[in-house]
Amino acid sequence: MGLDSRPLSTLHEKASYEVADFEVPTGREEEWRFTPLRRLRGLHNGAAEPGGKVLVEIDAAPEVRVETVARDDARLGTAYVPADRVSAQAWASFDHATVVTVPKEAVASRPTVIRLTGDGAQAAAFGHITVILEPFAEATVVLSHQGSATYADNVEFVVGDGARLSVISLQDWAADAVHVSHQHAKLARDARFVSHNITLGGDLVRVSPTVSYAGPGGDAELYGVYFAGGGQHLEHRLLVDHSAPNCRSRVDYRGALQDQDAHAVWIGDVIIRVEAEGTDTYELNRNLVLTDGTRVDSVPNLEILTGEVAGAGHASASGRLDDEHLFYLQARGITFDEARRMVVRGFLGQLVDRIEVDEVREKVSEAIEAELDR
Prior knowledge:
With 374 residues, the protein is mainly beta. The chain has one domain (8-320). It is 14% helix and 46% strand. It has five helices and 16 strands. It has helices spanning 8-11, 85-93, 323-330, 336-352, 358-373, and strands spanning 54-59, 65-70, 96-102, 112-133, 138-159, 164-171, 178-187, 192-199, 204-213, 219-228, 233-242, 248-257, 263-272, 279-289, 295-304, 309-320. The protein has a 16-stranded mixed beta sheet that branches. The longest helix has 17 residues, at 336-352. It is globular, with a radius of gyration of 20 Å. The chain starts with 7 loop residues before the first helix and ends with a helix. The mean pLDDT is 94.
């Protein structure tokens, strides 16, 4: 079987809660061709050793309600149906889920922080989180991943009419961690969703943020920053599915790579369906290659099924440090190492500066500096 050449709208049609409805990936499928399956520790084929644990700790804003629920809770799975085998396995395997609710018209006075800490990578763990913003609510949620783990999870964001949700997902795992995550946002009428995915740690991390629109006027902005070091595989696979009229989306992901066998993958799929007249969308991915021995795969895809769009475009670029930039700085007495730092800081800093939680923004900046120190 060769690589799948079907239209995006067909590629993304399959969805099921049943693991058996998905074939075991071989690596030749379009959605798996860049992922080193042998490093997934069996998350994709059912061979993962069960029994792993990821501790979930929540520091919630006072206006926010947090519950630990059984898997039969009716609120689970309302925004997202698994679209691949690992996601379905995560759905079938979690014991309890976390539900975070922001009541109607409530404005959270501070961010709600969800800390997920792994206690070992030998056995697999599975999780599920659902974040619900009722109509006209506003909140910021931070997902902070750390420790050692083999972990697959699904995260749902249900954003009600006129609600505003900002999400920061920080993947700062230990060096041996494997994490496969699906993060889906469902936007109601005039809802606004902003996400920041920052991926720094882990052996293999594959994050799939997706957005769908349940009413007109929805607005989604998806930002991402990643820094891949030697041997790391960092993969981000995005889907923005425009199926309602007069909605907007913006995607901007930027990464840096250094050292032997650092590998970054970015796939950006945008579908504008027949009924999505007035859509305004643009997606961008840029990668900065700092040393030899790295690999970047960047694939933007745009499928337009209506002739009535406000705007649609995409771009992708990967390359080395600009010699002219470095020469300009060195000609003014700045050393090569410091010039290199300044260029990388400026490149990634445009997105890091958008992170609205001071603690997270400072932590990301420090992590980037630590990578540059190496």
